[in-house]
Amino acid sequence: MTEETAAPHRLNVVIVGGGFAGIHAAKALGRLPVDVTVIDRRNHHTFQPLLYQVALAVLSPADIAQPIRGILRDQENTQVLMDEVTGIDAANNAILLASGTRLSYDYLLLATGATHSYFGKDAWAELAPGLKSVEDATEMRRRILLAFELAERQMQEHGWHPPLNFVVIGGGPTGVELAGAIGDISRIYLKHDFRHIDPSKSRVILLDGGESVLQSYPPELSARAGEALARRGVEVRTRSRVTGIGPGWVEVANAKGTERTQAAVILWAAGVQASPLGRLLGAPVDPRGCVLVNAELNPEGMKNVFVLGDLAHFEQGGKQVPGTAQPAMQMGDHAARVIEADLAGKARPAFRYFDKGDMATIGRMAAVANVKWPFTARLSGMPAWLTWIVVHVFFLISFRSRMAVMASWVWSFFTFSRGVRLITGDQTLPGWQEQVDAGEKAGEQAVSS
């Protein structure tokens, strides 16, 4: 009687996070003889570089977000769980989920990204939302559009309205893109839509504590970005450190002292911190909570755990690799290559980040691009804007998304209109009513005197 041969054990690979790193790792692992489980607390993957366009009513959330199940449905070795990791038992190769499930793994890939950092002032979050998710983008859209609507109503009823000041805090790519887009929407896309207010008279103020905007870019591109913002009416205030935020106001310390500016809408783009999940691993982390990893993207002493994307602190050439989409995608692909090498009994390859360049759009027909591949160039204006369009459409996850985004951009460009101007939810703004009451009281006092 012949004894049956037992089937070989298939390794379980658990990926936590459905962002760029997690999705790239999952797709690369789809061709290997392993079982893959992707866990995310949301059911969709979001193309974060275009979130600001949802916030400014250019695109719909569905244009830049795709169900994770749909992305991975053709991979027979992959399952998706909509759940949240609440604990990691690295000693026993297991994770604990919010649903109460304990899930074992042979390899664990952590790619939960980053969240907003208010530098210890967490109370500011309600007054100045950041931009990391679809929910954040729709909240920004609500506040920006609602400010114009409330001003129109106040003007029609009382003949005046509080200042339409939009304050963006942070002069990195996200802050520059938000400020430039608000400048465009107020001066181009909304100028004929209201009868009692002139949207073009609103103020957009960009605050940053550094010497210039886009400080990580070459100086000439940073300067051109500042010039493009100025053409859109954006007031760029550098060397300005935010010291306080309240309902309807921002307090800033600069060379002149401390100043307080009224604000109808305040948006945060000044800092990020790693997902709290990194600290659950028990490995060393940097001040932002990023897990320190070696050349194979493993925390020290954890060869079967990979930390990817914004959650990883990986240094190359003496500098930390930035927490952007490019490194995240490359890290996801690399983790799969390491697992493939382990399965084949080969030496593990070391991760090497290939920097293809950076780019940021500032508004209609304006962008800056520091291109490093497939050619080297420093572009600005229309050439950079067209390059930005091609790159972002190319990296969208699905054909449907590419078509939808291109259609929205073409429509917006030729019709000078924004098609997703929906206001949902609460119809109040922090501090708006207080500014109205203060203005009416000041008016009464002026009349009585």
Walk me through what this model shows.
The protein has 449 residues and is an alpha/beta fold. The chain is built from 12 helices and 26 strands. It has helices at 20-29, 51-55, 61-64, 68-72, 134-158, 173-189, 219-231, 277-280, 325-344, 381-395, 399-415, 432-448; strands spanning 11-16, 34-40, 44-46, 65-67, 78-82, 85-89, 94-97, 102-104, 107-110, 114-116, 165-169, 203-207, 234-237, 241-246, 249-254, 257-262, 265-268, 272-274, 291-292, 305-307, 312-313, 315-316, 319-320, 357-363, 366-371, 377-380. The strands form 9 sheets. It has a 5-stranded parallel beta sheet. A 4-stranded parallel beta sheet has the order 13-12-11-17. Strand 25 and strand 26 form a beta hairpin.
